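Backbone-to-sequence.
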């Protein structure tokens, strides 16, 4: 292989297109012979992996881009993997191409068409940019809870909320768009988990409860412990035990915190799990409101609908 072609292959994760090979002076018959001998591997029509070993994911991604042609970019979970928004590469490579193009996919390559592609080059691969990738994952989420998890993970990974809002402005139609606007429209985004998002939206906002301080670190009985939500000045704490955060229910730290609060006369801790917040947010709001009212809150919860049970 000519040295300049070898350098190009190194930059493309051991992948070359037929056009690149022919432009470098190699003949079609030479390429065919290398494939037949097993020295090279045909990944897609006119796209080759220039070694005989296992084909790594990055090589598959580069091959997909060469196959898809000009204007193509890795998208969805493939882009998320390159952006380090997810930890594992997807089984199939996902690529978007300009809407007017027709590209044939396969069992290992999913092709989508898009009128406007916002892409960038990252780690030598052309990918849909981070904010647009988050919205792609959001739109593909099968449920609102999964969509909330996508948003929370993106914010934890330091995707700027204003970038996400700008991207939302370019998409008039997107599944879970209202959820994203609800989360990202808050001046200060402090969402730590999907369960916290549910609590903030379905319990606090919809029932007119005061907004708790999120993820508050407190020194209790000589230990620094974190509370999920603290209603400052009212002596009420709320702990949200999602399965991901606390697989076995209450943790040792939970016990220390609750005991220290009780012993010190510092208030009460209310604890809720997914079934409470998701299945009966009105009941949760009623209980929190009663706790707050017993400690000085002078307002009443707001009914969120005709069937709301937040007030007795």
């Amino acid at each position: 292989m000519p040295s300049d072609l070898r350098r190009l292959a190194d930059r493309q994760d051991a992948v070359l297109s037929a056009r690149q090979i022919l432009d470098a002076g190699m003949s079609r018959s030479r390429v065919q012979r290398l494939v037949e001998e097993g020295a090279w591997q045909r990944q897609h029509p006119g796209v080759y992996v220039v070694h005989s070993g296992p084909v790594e994911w990055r090589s598959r991604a580069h091959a997909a881009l060469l196959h898809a042609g000009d204007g193509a970019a890795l998208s969805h979970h493939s882009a998320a993997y390159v952006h380090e928004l997810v930890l594992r590469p997807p089984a199939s490579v996902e690529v978007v191409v300009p809407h007017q193009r027709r590209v044939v996919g396969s069992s290992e390559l999913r092709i989508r068409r898009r009128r406007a592609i916002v892409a960038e080059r990252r780690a030598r691969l052309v990918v849909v940019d981070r904010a647009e990738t988050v919205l792609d994952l959001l739109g593909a989420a099968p449920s609102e809870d999964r969509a909330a998890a996508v948003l929370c993970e993106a914010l934890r990974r330091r995707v700027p909320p204003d970038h996400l809002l700008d991207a939302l402005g370019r998409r008039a139609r997107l599944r879970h768009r209202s959820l994203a606007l609800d989360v990202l429209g808050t001046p200060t985004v402090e969402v730590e988990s999907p369960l916290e998002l549910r609590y903030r939206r379905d319990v606090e906002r919809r029932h007119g409860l005061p907004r708790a301080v999120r993820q508050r670190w407190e020194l209790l009985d000589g230990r620094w412990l974190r509370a999920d939500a603290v209603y400052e000045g009212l002596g009420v704490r709320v702990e949200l035990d999602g399965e991901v955060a606390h697989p076995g229910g209450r943790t040792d730290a939970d016990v220390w915190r609750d005991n220290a609060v009780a012993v010190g006369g510092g208030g009460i801790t209310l604890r809720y799990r997914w079934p409470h917040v998701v299945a009966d947010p009105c009941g949760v709001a009623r209980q929190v409101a009663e706790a707050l009212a017993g400690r000085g809150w002078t307002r009443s919860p707001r009914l969120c609908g005709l069937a709301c049970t937040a007030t007795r």
